[in-house]
Amino acid sequence: MGFVALLLLGGAAFAGMALLLRVDRVLWSMLGAALCLGGVGYAWQGRPMLAAASPQRSSSTPPIDVEETQLRDSMFGRFNADTAYLVAADAMTRSGNDDAAARVVLGGLSKLPQSFILWTWAGVTLAADAGHRVSPPALLAFRQAARLAPEHPAPPYYLGFAYLESGDLAKTRALWSRAVALSPEGTWYRIEIARRLALIDRLIAASNAR
Predict the structure, then answer these.
(1) How far apart are alpha carbons 79 and 90 in whole angstroms?
(2) Which of 39, 57, 110, 143 is the most exposed place for a label (fewest CB within 10 A)?
(3) Which domains does the chain have, with CATH numbers?
(4) Cα–Cα distances in Å, from 35 out to 8, 9, 25, 30, 54?
(5) Which is nearest to 108 in space by CA: 95, 129, 125?
(6) pLDDT (tens digit, 9 = 90+) per residue, 52-109?
(7) How far apart are CA 169 and CA 174, in angstroms?
(8) Taking the CA of residue 53 as centre, how many other CA atoms within 13 Å lie in the half-sphere pointing to its CB?
């Protein structure tokens, strides 16, 4: 019965595209081939007699924060060899594979070993892969980034962010204060880091008031 329905649906689809949508006659053979290909795939893998099942909620990972991505772009830039690896790592993070994200960045470091950007993001991805805690490999990566770019705000900012995810507000505050101090006056990312620092101060004040 399922295959009969498939034939009827295929014929209706072809008629709708040919007559109602007025697809050019030259393309009819292409439409027919596409419908036949779909039918063959269904005949091969389809199971029309299989009982229906209730939809299952698929697990999903939180999307990457757009605002944080914009902040990263403003500090690192977007169109360079280093950040291409960050974009690839983002794709792995979105799929829930923190280990693959870290391996992408470490692969980039094998080609660009002096990139403070990649060392910084190695710290980020290694911390995420360790259950969002500042593991020794993550800390080593952040320290190497700071050694390569001691006057850049990104290494202390992202190390602070890693400590924030592990629940250490005091270390976050100290590192974000340094990131603000290292950021040039008037830059958008300085304003944003300062805003985040103010939020941390509120959290610490609220925690101390309990």
Answers:
(1) 15
(2) 57
(3) 2-45 (no CATH), 66-209 (1.25.40.10)
(4) 12, 10, 16, 9, 28
(5) 125
(6) 544 444 334 444 577 888 999 999 988 788 989 999 999 999 999 999 999 999 999 9
(7) 9
(8) 6
